[in-house]
Amino acid sequence: MDHIATHIPYLRRYARALTGSQSTGDAYATAVLEAMIASPDTIPEQSVARVALYRMFHTIWHSSGAPVSEAERGAAAKAQTHLAQLTANSREAVLLNALEEFGVADVAKIIGVDTEEAQELIRIGQSELAEAVRGAVLIIEDEPIIAMDIEGIVTDAGHRVFGVAQTHAEAVEIGTDGRPDLILADIHLADDSSGIDAVNDLLVAHGDLPVIFITAFPERLLTGERPEPAFLITKPFRPEQVLSAISQAMFFSSTETLK
Questions:
Q1: 3-class SS at 34?
Q2: 133-252: same fold as 2-131?
Q3: CATH class entry, domain 133-252
Q4: Count of Cβ atoms closer than 10 Å to residue 211 Cβ
Q5: Which CATH number is 2-131's, of 1.20.58.480, 1.20.120.530, 1.20.140.160, 3.40.50.300?
Q6: How far apart are CA 22 and CA 7, in angstroms?
Q7: Distance, CA of 174 to CA of 172 (rounded, Å)
Q8: For residue 112, how far is the Cα from the chain centroid?
Q9: CA-to-CA distance for 163 and 171, rounded, in angstroms?
């Protein structure tokens, strides 16, 4: 099972982004592992392990009605209402392609459609999620070139840049001069301060805000030992990954962060 274990943190990331809840996502990721343990013949070979793992997740998730977070009030309830209006499988397809970096052929295998349909679902999902929400994005990033790149991605998608900060202190100063709609934060900042601490201070000031973290070392955060960010982008990133994460985070207004 070692070749399966290496993919579990990323399956958990995907499951949480898909369901809008760490507990719901983890429950389905756990169900996948339990199914494999109960039927060892279902454990895939290493060469196809990642695709098979995600495909099994989808089979179990859809067999139970493809539920999302069960909260009935506030942002989660609003997200569920939006979800009901999306084209079937489009959100899954765009997440698998943009966030998890599966090629179109593998997306097709995972969700059980042909390649042409998978490509169309990705296109539809990108369009529907981008149109669902617009807002002001606070960027916390200490590398100027990367910050400029993110600014361009944000504005090209129709969002507004609330501000750009390079340190914990600067992030809190800028982020409390008004209220951003979303925070997009690097983990390690210019003065060795923590983007996680900056985000948590801003959440104390503002209450619920959707958050996306960017890091070159996602495995350090996806350990299962403490609360984790719903949306985590790995450096180096592609523009479509950032766009997908922004749309998803605003869509769910996810606020659970690392402590």
A1: helix
A2: no
A3: alpha beta
A4: 27
A5: 1.20.140.160
A6: 17
A7: 6
A8: 22
A9: 9
Q: Do 10 and 32 touch, CB atoms closer than 8 A?
A: no
Residue range 64-120, pLDDT digits in tens: 887 766 554 555 556 556 666 678 788 889 889 877 889 999 999 999 999 999 999
Nearest to 246 by CA among 144, 147, 157, 128: 157
Q: What is the DSSP letter of 166?
A: S
In a structure prediction context, what are the per-residue pLDDT tens digits for the chain, which is 259 residues long? 677 888 888 898 888 878 777 788 889 999 988 988 888 887 778 778 899 999 999 999 988 887 766 554 555 556 556 666 678 788 889 889 877 889 999 999 999 999 999 999 998 987 877 776 788 999 999 999 999 999 999 998 889 999 999 999 999 999 999 999 999 999 889 888 888 899 989 999 998 788 898 888 776 666 555 555 668 888 888 888 888 788 777 776 644 443 3
User: Residue ranges of the domains in the chain?
Assistant: 2-131, 133-252
